[in-house]
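Progress note, sequence design subtask.
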């Protein structure tokens, strides 16, 4: 997984990442597909993003990298 190579993120448990001591993103599956809940704004709430297709995964990784630069 590409997220595991981002130095700013720590995988606390499989599929659950933090940025420093703050929960940053996690994955879950439901009947509609695979989703990630990620904090795109520092100190903000989680935003749910669908990550079932390759295009959705690319958009998700791009959003994560942008959020980490903020």
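Output:
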């Amino acid at each position: 997984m590409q997220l595991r190579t981002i130095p700013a993120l720590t995988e606390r448990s499989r599929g659950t990442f933090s940025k420093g001591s703050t929960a940053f993103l996690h994955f879950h599956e439901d009947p509609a597909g695979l989703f990630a809940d990620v904090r795109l704004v520092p100190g903000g709430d989680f935003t749910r993003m669908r990550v079932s297709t390759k295009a959705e995964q690319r958009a998700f990784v791009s959003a994560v990298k942008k959020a980490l630069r903020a």
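The longest helix spans residues 54-69. Work on this subtask will continue into the next period as scheduled.
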